[in-house]
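Supplementary Methods. Inverse-folding protocol.

Structures were first reduced to a discrete structure-token string of length 484. This string, shown here, constituted the complete conditioning input.
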């Protein structure tokens, strides 16, 4: 293990022992003193939760490219609502030690298909000050520039913490609506927000709020119904993994989504097994005193679920595209928990919603097996395990859209976080299994064929994935036994 990697682990373990607080808010304020709602400024000390030291050239390049993205690009790059990932991509690279040339390459490759920013409507920006009027504009992508300008101005006047508190944690109709939209679009609005909160960048917080505002609120009924049903629960909350196993064991729920469904959550799970998904997700109820441990459990289970789902008999391993997002978002819950100005009730609620959405997504993806053996028996590419530094070098040089480096970063942070709880009954991914999971990210991202499998629990989804050469490792054989 390199000295850099040892230092990384030591720093994180010390930080995690202080109730998951990686960096105090006052430290972040010093790191971001030049940042405003209109100007992104990244410093060498501000590398997010990975907490390494960057250099001035990389910090300057990151700031320059992030500013260009803010000013030049829309949140969607097409009419189908596909998301611009440049902010996530650049900060995930920068936050794991990438050099200026890596940042430049990532930007150049992915700027080519971005949609230019749209015209600002000054009259609309003014109207957004009144929520009753603003409600007529939410859920419509054409108003993204207007919402962005509105939130930028609000943040410039009052600070990003107060604006975020008003629009996410106030408990009124406005914040309720925005919070629901944060969980739309495979969690993309809250993923965008994550990088603003973690790096303490007001402009990126404004981007996250604006992105939420133009998403639909399709999960409103589910989130609020499950939450209300949970109030009548008196039994202790089970482990999250056991709830996933219950989903898989419930035939009606496990088969509710069909591979042919275009929207497997809404047209499948919600439409065909509404009572069943409400019953199981209503048992998610986190006590305030459990917040830190349940956050770690959520993080661990998301990684366990995602890594397990990456295997299918006879096929090259591939992470599921949808489950991957549920891992990539996990660091925001660490960042949110460290914010003393956010009420603990709001932190608990946010975590409960995430766990419920994790359960729904698992059902929607066809309930792939949860198999520790598949992860344990995985042999890294060429049977040559590498250090974190070596794996990061491969990730930094990979030509992609940002999903893979986000996944690698999230799993690396999760390893450190969950290490605090290794004696708990819910921890099954331990020690070398985290290393295997990181290798799995890199190897699968570099492998031929599609980078992701889409809905890993369905056999048909694996039809486009290349076959795995015989005798590469025993994961396929073990998984075949599990599926039988």
């Amino acid at each position: 293990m390199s000295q850099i990697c040892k230092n990384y682990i030591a720093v994180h373990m010390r930080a995690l022992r202080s109730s998951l607080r990686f960096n105090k808010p006052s430290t972040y304020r010093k790191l971001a003193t030049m940042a405003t709602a209109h100007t992104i400024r990244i410093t060498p000390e501000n590398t997010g939760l990975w907490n390494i030291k960057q250099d001035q050239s990389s910090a300057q390049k990151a700031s320059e490219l992030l500013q260009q993205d803010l000013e030049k690009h829309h949140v969607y790059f097409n009419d189908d609502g596909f998301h611009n990932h440049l902010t996530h991509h650049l900060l995930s690279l920068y936050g794991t030690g990438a050099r200026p040339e890596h940042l430049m390459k990532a930007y150049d490759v992915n700027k080519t298909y971005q949609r230019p920013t749209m015209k600002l409507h000054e009259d609309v920006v003014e109207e957004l000050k009144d929520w009753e009027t603003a409600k007529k504009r939410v859920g419509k992508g054409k108003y993204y520039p207007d919402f962005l300008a509105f939130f930028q101005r609000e943040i410039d006047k009052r600070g990003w913490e107060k604006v975020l508190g008003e629009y996410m944690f106030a408990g009124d109709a406005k914040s309720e609506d925005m919070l629901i939209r944060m969980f739309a679009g495979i969690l993309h609005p809250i993923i965008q927000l994550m990088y603003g909160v973690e790096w303490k960048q007001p402009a990126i917080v404004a981007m996250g709020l604006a992105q939420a505002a133009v998403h639909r609120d399709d999960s409103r009924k589910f989130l609020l119904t499950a939450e209300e049903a949970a109030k009548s629960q008196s039994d202790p909350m089970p482990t999250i993994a056991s709830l996933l196993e219950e989903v898989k064991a419930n035939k009606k729920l496990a088969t509710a989504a069909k591979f042919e469904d275009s929207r497997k959550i809404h047209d499948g799970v919600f439409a065909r097994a509404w009572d069943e998904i409400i019953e199981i997700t209503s048992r998610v109820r986190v006590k305030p005193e459990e917040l830190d441990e349940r956050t770690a459990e959520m993080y661990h289970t998301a990684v366990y679920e995602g890594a397990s789902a990456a295997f299918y008999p006879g096929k090259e391993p591939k992470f599921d595209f949808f489950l991957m997002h549920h891992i990539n978002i996990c660091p925001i819950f660490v960042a949110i928990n460290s914010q003393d100005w956010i009420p603990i009730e709001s932190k608990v609620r946010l975590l409960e919603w995430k766990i419920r959405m994790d359960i729904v997504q698992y059902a929607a993806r066809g309930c792939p097996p949860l198999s520790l053996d598949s992860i344990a028996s995985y042999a890294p590419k060429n049977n040559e395990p590498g250090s974190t530094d070596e794996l990061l070098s491969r990730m930094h040089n990979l030509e992609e859209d940002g999903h893979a480096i986000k996944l690698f970063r999230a799993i690396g942070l999760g390893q450190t976080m969950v290490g605090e709880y290794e004696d708990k009954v819910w921890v099954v991914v331990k020690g070398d299994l985290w290393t295997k999971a990181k290798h799995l990210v890199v190897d699968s991202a570099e492998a031929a064929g599609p980078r992701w499998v889409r809905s890993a629990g369905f056999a048909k989804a694996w039809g486009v994935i290349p076959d795995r050469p015989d005798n590469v490792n025993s994961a396929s054989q073990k998984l075949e036994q599990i599926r039988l």
